């Protein structure tokens, strides 16, 4: 800082939301020794709310008395006041406010010059900036003016701000058998106060349709009316992404579709202080379908013992050549197949699929796995064995179940 | 209590004939007011006392309080403290400092706001009861009067934020559970009178005390215990027996009066739990309890809805706040109340221009309302109008310095002065300090720190 005396002074105050002050409610009964004296004091307190004095939920706005943290995604606001400390008249005052982050310098205000400032007058600037980087920031305020002799003077002041991370977002993906993708997102509040999550939504990539699984069938949020997160608490969200028809018909691009979308989170804290974050593009592990894929398309959950049931599978050829298969059905302890084993299937051209229908009879009650399906490629002689195609619950009879 | 007052007002409008005069016996009223269910160990001691069994008293079961601090200096800046008292006495010309301590004088000191002097006064009065300085840990005899003195003493210690002293002196009382706090403990003195000798307010104050002293979890536990006890008493009443469960047949009107009193006391305890929940930022609990109170018939609905709205604003749930404020409006919130709520709502949205407009309008309806002027000034600052904000606050103080030199307002004004030039700001802060020392008996330390800082 220059040693020279300046005619103007610069003060900066961070503007954060005020708090609601309220008195300490100490009350008495009219039959107590002080009578209603303490109650009267409380009633006369300007920070008490008339009619509900004993509830310490105030309405008296109090400017924050302690430094408040600033978090990524919040709006940084500051009051910059340039005050004339001299009896002289000062001319052509300009106030320039920049924010220096670790990666760039942003201009927040560049006031057109104030022609003339008398003694005790101020130039007021209020800046707002949505913080988009974590780490140290420096607010640079530069004041330039001319003194009464017309000499150009200027000075700068620096203010350091540390931007903290407000939320920790963890995601997990599950690639389901039917090509759906389930996304589990954990949002943790790592600020030092409670926050209210106003909005958490998944902006899916155009390749998927999103179903939000965080509402009850009647459309209410499973978190209740308000998603209030105490410090360190976690709120968990679940989404189901269904590939668009176009995508699911093409296994190769389905396998390549790893971009899922972005989570958009809006929260508010003390008296409505707002923050907003968007995650970077979420990536899932690309599912490895291989050349040939056999997957269930229709399967009953419950089947009756010793009664024939049907299920359907999709056989897809993801490779570059036409394949021919021989289908083998091997009986297991649990299931007897009903169909011809060793049958040759129709040739399957590249990038195509067909639906196969299977019939079988369950032999043992309980939760049973469908296994024993084998495909042999007639050209390469390679065998594909499917021992965990799906599961059914085998019940004794429909009467006892219902 | 305001709670009861507001209930009465609302009721008065609807059915003016609910307060039919009725002959109530003094005994009935005492029983109702003092009722409390002792814990099992205490009940056994009291039963033995009633059957005049001589019982070796376990010291652990005695309440043995004593004054720990009676020097004014230890409580804070005595000169500042006495200013207001001195000034008031001069004006009244009726009080001379040499008066012997008595309860009337104590009430006068409290009325003047000379809390430090009042606290000393209680120490003197308590020494007459053998519970003065150095008596903590010695067996003593309690009377309703001595317990009232303790109540007012600890209440004032809390009010003057002498919390360490308050806690240390309150410690022997625990939660007023010991047998010697009950009338039954002294059958030869009070005959068949039953119930707690300590007033309900004292009980509530002691339950809340840990919150003020930085142990809010303890306070929550104590308050929930109190609530449970009251629920038990309400249940007894509903089943047609006395509050404490003794099988005396109650007259219908008597029972109705009791239910009313204890329901209102239950609400007080719930208010305290809400305050404590807010203090620990357990907003979920506070909201749930407020919502329960709103459902009750005997509560001022629009005030509670407005409070719930503000609580939602505090947590950041703006949409929820709007619903509450709208509902409060349906239940009769209007005029200033409505404008203030709208102003706070705009503040939470960050729309300070709109907030300024709301508070300005509210101020035109109620020009002397300090809260509105203060809120207006705070919003002006956010709107880039610091100097206007300062002049609003300075004008408010100048108009009624005695009432308006309020701690929170002074803190706001100091923040504004800080934003002004350093030279001028310090001068202005000194001027404020002079004013405070002139008018306020108990200048809180936070203000002094801010002013010197």
Automatic annotation (TrEMBL), chain A:
Trafficking protein particle complex subunit 13 middle domain sequence ranges: 167-287
InterPro entries per UniProt: TRAPPC13 (IPR010378), TRAPPC13_C (IPR055428), TRAPPC13_M (IPR055429), TRAPPC13_N (IPR055427)
Trafficking protein particle complex subunit 13 N-terminal domain boundaries: 6-163
Residues in the signal sequence: none
Coiled-coil features, chain-numbered ranges: none
Domain Trafficking protein particle complex subunit 13 C-terminal, first and last residues per copy: 300-394
Domain of life of the organism encoding this protein: Eukaryota
Any one Gene Ontology cellular component term annotated for this protein: TRAPPIII protein complex
Family the entry assigns: Belongs to the TRAPPC13 family.
Protein's name in the database: Trafficking protein particle complex subunit 13
From TrEMBL, chain B:
Keywords linked to the UniProt accession: TPR repeat
Signal peptide: none
Coiled coil (UniProt feature): none
One cellular component (GO) term of this entry: Golgi apparatus
TPR-type repeats, residues: 336-369
Protein's recorded name: Trafficking protein particle complex subunit 12
Source organism of this protein record: Dendroctonus ponderosae (Mountain pine beetle)
């Amino acid at each position: 800082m220059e040693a020279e005396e300046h005619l103007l002074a610069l003060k900066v105050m961070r503007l954060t939301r005020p708090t609601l002050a309220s008195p300490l409610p100490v009350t008495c009964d009219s039959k107590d020794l002080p009578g209603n004296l303490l109650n009267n004091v409380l009633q006369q307190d300007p920070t008490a709310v008339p009619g509900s004095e004993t509830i310490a939920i105030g309405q008296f706005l109090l400017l924050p008395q302690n430094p408040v943290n600033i978090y990524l995604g919040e709006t940084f606001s500051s009051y910059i006041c340039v005050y004339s400390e001299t009896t002289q008249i000062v001319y052509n005052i300009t106030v320039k406010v920049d924010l220096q982050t670790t990666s760039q310098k942003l201009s927040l205000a560049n006031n057109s010059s104030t022609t003339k400032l008398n003694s005790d007058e101020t130039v007021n600037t209020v800046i707002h900036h949505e913080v988009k980087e974590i780490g140290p920031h420096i607010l640079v305020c530069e004041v330039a003016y001319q003194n009464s002799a017309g000499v150009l003077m200027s000075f700068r002041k620096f203010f350091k701000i540390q931007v903290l991370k407000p939320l920790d977002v963890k995601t997990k993906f599950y690639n389901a058998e039917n090509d759906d993708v389930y996304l589990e997102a954990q949002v943790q509040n790592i600020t030092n106060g409670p926050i209210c999550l106003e909005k958490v939504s998944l902006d899916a990539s155009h390749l998927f349709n999103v179903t939000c699984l965080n509402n009850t069938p009647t459309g209410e949020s499973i978190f209740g009316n308000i998603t209030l997160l105490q410090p360190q608490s976690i709120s968990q969200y679940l989404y189901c992404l269904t590939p668009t028809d176009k995508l699911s018909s093409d296994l190769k691009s389905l396998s390549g579709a790893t971009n899922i979308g972005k989570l958009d989170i809006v929260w508010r804290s003390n008296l409505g202080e707002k923050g907003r974050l968007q995650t970077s593009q979420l990536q899932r592990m690309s599912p490895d379908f291989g050349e040939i894929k056999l997957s269930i398309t229709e399967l009953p959950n419950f089947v009756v013992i010793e009664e024939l049931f049907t299920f359907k599978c999709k056989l897809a050829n993801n490779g570059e050549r036409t394949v021919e298969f021989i289908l083998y059905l091997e009986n297991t302890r649990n299931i007897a197949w009903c169909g011809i084993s060793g049958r040759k299937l129709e040739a399957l051209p590249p990038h195509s699929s067909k639906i196969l229908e299977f019939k079988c009879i369950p032999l043992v009650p309980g939760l049973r796995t469908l296994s024993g399906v084998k495909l042999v490629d007639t050209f390469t002689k390679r065998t594909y064995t499917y021992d965990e195609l799906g599961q059914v619950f085998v019940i004794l009879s429909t009467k006892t179940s219902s | 209590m305001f709670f009861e007052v507001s209930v009465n007002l609302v009721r008065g409008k609807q059915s003016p004939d609910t307060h039919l005069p009725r002959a109530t016996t003094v005994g009935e009223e005492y029983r109702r007011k003092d009722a409390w269910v002792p814990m099992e160990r205490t009940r056994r001691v009291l039963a033995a006392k009633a059957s005049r069994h001589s019982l070796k008293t376990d010291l652990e079961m005695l309440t043995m309080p004593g004054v720990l601090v009676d020097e004014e200096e230890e409580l804070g800046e005595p000169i500042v403290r006495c200013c207001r008292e001195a000034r008031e006495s001069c004006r009244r010309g009726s009080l001379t400092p040499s008066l012997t301590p008595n309860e009337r004088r104590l009430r006068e000191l409290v009325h003047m706001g000379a809390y430090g002097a009042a606290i000393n006064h209680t120490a003197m009065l308590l020494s007459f009861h053998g519970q003065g300085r150095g008596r903590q840990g010695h067996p003593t005899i309690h009377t309703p009067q001595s317990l009232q003195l303790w109540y007012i003493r600890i209440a004032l210690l809390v009010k003057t934020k002498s919390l360490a002293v308050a806690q240390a002196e309150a410690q022997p009382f625990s939660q007023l559970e010991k047998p010697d706090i009950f009338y039954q403990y002294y059958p030869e003195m009070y005959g068949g009178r039953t119930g707690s000798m300590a007033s309900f307010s004292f009980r509530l104050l002691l339950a809340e005390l840990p919150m003020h002293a930085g142990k809010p979890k303890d306070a929550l536990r104590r308050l929930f215990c109190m609530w449970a006890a009251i629920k038990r008493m309400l249940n007894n009443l509903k089943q047609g027996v006395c509050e404490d469960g003794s099988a005396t047949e109650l007259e219908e009107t008597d029972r109705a009066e009791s239910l009313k009193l204890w329901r209102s006391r239950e609400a007080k305890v719930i208010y305290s739990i809400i305050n404590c929940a807010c203090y620990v930022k357990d907003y979920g609990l506070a909201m749930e309890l407020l919502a329960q109170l709103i459902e009750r018939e005997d509560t001022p609905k629009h005030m509670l809805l407005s409070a719930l709205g503000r609580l939602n604003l505090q947590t950041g749930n703006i949409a929820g706040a709007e619903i509450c404020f709208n509902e409060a409006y349906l239940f009769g919130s209007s005029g200033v109340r409505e404008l203030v709520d709208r102003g706070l709502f705009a503040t939470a949205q960050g729309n300070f221009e709109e907030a300024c407009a709301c508070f300005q309008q509210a101020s035109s309806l109620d020009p002397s309302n300090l809260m509105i002027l203060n809120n207006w000034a705070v919003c002006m600052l956010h709107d880039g109008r610091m100097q206007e904000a300062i002049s609003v606050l300075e004008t408010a103080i100048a108009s009624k310095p005695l009432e308006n030199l309020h701690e929170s307002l002074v803190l706001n004004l100091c923040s504004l002065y800080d934003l002004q030039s350093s030279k001028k700001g310090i001068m202005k802060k000194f001027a404020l300090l002079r004013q405070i020392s002139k008018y306020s008996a108990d200048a809180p330390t936070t203000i002094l720190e801010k002013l010197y800082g």
